[in-house]
Amino acid sequence: HAAECLVLQRLRGANFNDFTLALTALATRALMLRASDEEGFRQVLALCHHRGSASLQLVSDFRAAERIAQRSVPQLRDQDLVGIMLRHYSNGFARRDRTAETAMLLAPAASYFNHSCAPNACQENSKGLELRFWALEDILAGVPVYISYVDIPRKSSDALSRADGRRAMLQEHYFFHCTCMLCEGPRHGSCTRWARARLCTGEGLCSKRGFLVPQGTSRWCCLCLQMKS
């Protein structure tokens, strides 16, 4: 923890943005805990870092943060912080309250869920280190489980309601071209009809991720109502 605080202090002094601060802190934590959790560290290294797909500007920013971190904490010297940061960048999960993201964590097993703009599962915004996922429909044995890496909008005016908007975001942050049924389907990438049937209509209570999930045979519960700030 002391190493993280020192790194964050130095990065704030160099005016790095909050996202780079968070990723550098996570990479610092992973490397500092390597000796006590070698298996966990191996799971992190098994994730794809997409170094060849990330933009030159992104990698340059991460390298600048890496240099400051390595000068601040001797144990980080000669360590590949950029590789760990890139793994967090495209595999991390956000914690959020009703207004904004509040934290980020890396769960290697959950990182293997693939993306669909019409997912059959969703992440609950649970607290602490636990990640919970809910099925949005019956999923037969052998059928892949998909979550959405982007917010699913209700309104057709939202840029993410169109395939080109979602694909641009997915390419920038996750480095792939989406070919899900909504992006490739006959509705030319619109996801608003799909979303309206699966998102809570309580505008004042829910964020865009307010999925309705089955509770028993007939009741539906919005995950956002379970969220505690």
From TrEMBL:
One of its GO terms (cellular component) is nucleus. SUPFAM superfamilies: SET domain (SSF82199). CDD domains: SET_SMYD. It holds the Pfam family SET. It comes from the Eukaryota. Residues 102-149 form the SET domain. InterPro entries: H3K4_H4K5_MeTrfase, SET_dom, SET_dom_sf. Transmembrane segments: none annotated. PANTHER family: EG:BACR7C10.4 PROTEIN, HISTONE-LYSINE N-METHYLTRANSFERASE SMYD. This is SET domain-containing protein. It comes from Pyrodinium bahamense.
